[in-house]
Each structure stands twice: as C-alpha cells, then as structure tokens.
Design goal:
This protein has helices spanning 35-46, 49-52, 71-77, 174-186, 190-201, 238-252, 272-285, 297-308, 334-342, and strands at 2-10, 13-18, 24-29, 91-98, 103-110, 115-123, 139-148, 164-167, 207-211, 220-224, 231-232, 257-260, 289-293, 315-323, 326-332. Helix content is 28%, strand content 28%. The chain is α/β, with parallel strands linked by helices. The chain is built from nine helices and 15 strands. Strand 12 (257-260), helix 7 and strand 13 form a beta-alpha-beta unit. It folds into two domains: 1-163 and 255-348, Rossmann fold (3-Layer(aba) Sandwich); 170-253, no CATH class. The model has no long low-confidence stretch (mean pLDDT 88).
Length: 348
C-alpha cells in the first residue's frame, strides 16, 4: 500500500507532497487544483503499455471522434501537457513510498525529437532517490516506455505495473458487466456478497440472473425488484448500474488500486453512506487502496461518518489548496475532520 506521494513539475504541481495516505483517500479542493492530476499520476505509475494508450481519455475528454483513437492529437493536447510550464520544464517525476519500505519512481522526460519518455523504477530503501539525476543509484528494476508525436507507444515493460480499476464517468458495456457478474458467481459466496452490497443501495432487490432474453442477441444481467418482470441492469438507474459494475470489478479483478474521479457523479447524495460502506467493505476484504476525488460536501461527510463506523478509521481527506501561488495538500485525519465539520469550516 502506498503511504506517501510526491510530484515534481507534473501537471500544475511544482512540488507537491501528500502524506500520510490511508486505505481510502479522498481528494477535495477548488477547480483546477490538480485533483484529477493525482489520479493520472497514479495511472502513469502503475499502467502497462496497453493501459497507457487509454490514459488520455481515462479521466478527460479527447479530440478523437467517438469510437476512434487519434494518439497524434493526444500527444499535443495530453502528453506534452503533463509537464509543468511546458516552455521551461522538460522533466517531471512521481515518487511514492510504500508500506514495504520500497520506493516507486516514474520520471517523464520530453526529448528534443518531440517524444515523451516514461522511466519507471523500483528503488531500494537503503538508497533513497530524491531526484531524477540520481535514479541510477539504488535502482532495483527499471524500464522505459516512449510516446512519440506519430501516435506510437513503445511496448516497453513497466516493472511497477499493478492491477487497478478506474471508475469512469461513462458506463461500462453491459456485456462486459454480464461477464463480470458470471465471474462473481463462481466465487465462494460472491453472489451473496454482491447482493448484500447492492441491497444497501436498493432494498427492493431480490436476486440477479444472467439471462439471454427472447428477442435479444446477447445475455445480460437482469435484476428482480419484486415486480412481475425482471429488469435488465441497462434499464436501472445510472447510479445502480455504475455501482453494480464497480462492486463486480472489486470482487473479481484482484486489483490493488481503485481510481475514481468525482465519485458523486450520477449518484444520489442520500445514498452516499451506503455507497461508501460498500466501497470500504470491499477495499478491506479485497485489499484495495482507494483514491477518489469529490466536490461534494455530502460525499465527504458520508465518507467520514461511514469510516467512523468501521472497525478501523482507515481514511484521510486531502484538501488541495493554493498558498502564495503554490499548491499544497493538507491532510485531515479523523480528529481534524471532526473538528472542521462540527465548526462548519470549508474542507472541500
């Protein structure tokens, strides 16, 4: 599990440190303070070659037409924009400490030939590396991946590659969700656990079934809500189908990290306590570290109250704010957050 993060010359961060990190981490702050950038940094740290091709559209809109990918456009609008003040900075770094006393390093360099190079390394704790120029010292494993302006991403291996889940603002394809549900049913107690989590969102839910209905081309998941006919997951509310997909992924993916941008999107604020309860339960049982962003006070209050009811308050709110023109992260633990919320202080 990651215990701290440091960004240098990445996005709008000249030098940003976030610590201590917990099992569940929620990032708040005004617009354009870098919340999404934190998630992109983690994606860069852990992504493999195939995942990196999807990064430009993972959290943001792109210039590509629907259903198409134009990495040439992505290079100019996304990859070059990863560097702070592109006119003067050609190197950016992401540094993470882990609970096993290992350091993870991702350095981005912009070359003279209009390319971006990603350099990943695992650092021995006895030889801590504090800047890119010292990366050769203490490196246990390393690799480089290049992205050029022609839209090519070299198939280099990332030694830090880790399974992670991205909860997108876009809904997953229903046939993919159906396949995920099938995998859940193969787990010992998996279907019962999923039903229990979803009933916290909608108590009317009786059962789920994988069915190829008459007149349809592919099997889908259908939910029984006590009505005469079952309802396809595609026809339930956006929030329910979004959480169905998320909980299935958390149960079967063996992921170590979950990234969620603007977690409140498409979700009714009164259900946030139940949503956080589901995420917290699966994060603990499946050993997943959660990084999410929000603009919602109701969302962060729900997270705080939910985690207070858990066996361990493994939660931190990290507020990104500008101080004298520089971005910094203020981490609120349980006591600080309790005082702030009871005093009516703004922590979003």
């Amino acid at each position: 599990m990651i215990t701290s993060l440091k960004f240098e010359n990445f996005r709008i961060f000249t030098n940003l440190e976030v610590a201590p990190l917990q099992r569940i981490n929620l990032f708040a702050g005004a617009n354009n303070t870098g919340k999404t950038g934190i998630l992109e940094g983690l994606y860069l740290l852990f992504g493999d070659h195939a995942q990196l091709q999807q990064l430009p559209s993972a959290f943001r809109s792109t210039l590509s037409a629907p259903g198409q990918q134009n990495i040439s456009d992505d290079f100019a609008t996304f990859w070059q924009a990863l560097f702070y003040d592109r006119q003067t900075q050609v190197t950016a770094s992401i540094f993470a400490e882990t609970g096993s006393d290992r350091s993870l390093f991702c350095v981005l360099t912009s070359g003279q030939h209009n390319q971006v190079r990603l350099f990943h390394a695992l650092i021995d704790p006895s030889n801590r590396v504090d800047n890119p120029s010292n990366m050769a010292r203490g490196v246990v494993s390393k690799s480089a991946i290049e992205i050029n302006s022609n839209g090519n991403i070299s198939p280099g291996q990332n030694p830090l590659a880790t399974k992670f889940i991205v909860l997108s603002t876009r809904l997953e394809h229903p046939t993919r969700d159906a396949d995920l549900y099938n995998q859940v049913t193969l787990l010992d107690g998996g279907e019962e656990k999923l039903l229990q989590l979803l009933r916290e969102i909608d108590p009317r839910l009786q059962k789920l079934r994988y069915i190829k209905a008459p007149g349809t081309n592919q099997p889908l998941v259908y939910a029984y809500f006590g009505l005469k006919n079952a309802l396809s997951i595609t026809q339930t509310g956006q929030g329910f189908s979004k959480l169905f997909s998320l909980f299935c992924q958390m149960l079967v993916s063996k992921a170590e990290v979950l990234l969620i941008d603007e977690i409140e999107n498409g979700l009714y604020y009164e259900t946030m306590p139940q949503i956080w309860k589901g995420i917290a339960t699966l994060a603990a049982s499946e050993n997943i570290q959660v990084f999410a962003t929000t603009h919602s006070r109701e969302c962060l209050i729900a997270a705080h109250e939910t985690m207070k009811a858990q066996p361990s308050y493994d939660f931190a709110l990290h507020r990104l704010q500008r101080v004298n023109g520089r971005l910094e992260a203020v981490t609120h633990d349980q006591g600080m957050l309790e005082v702030a919320l009871n005093s009516g202080l703004e922590v979003r």
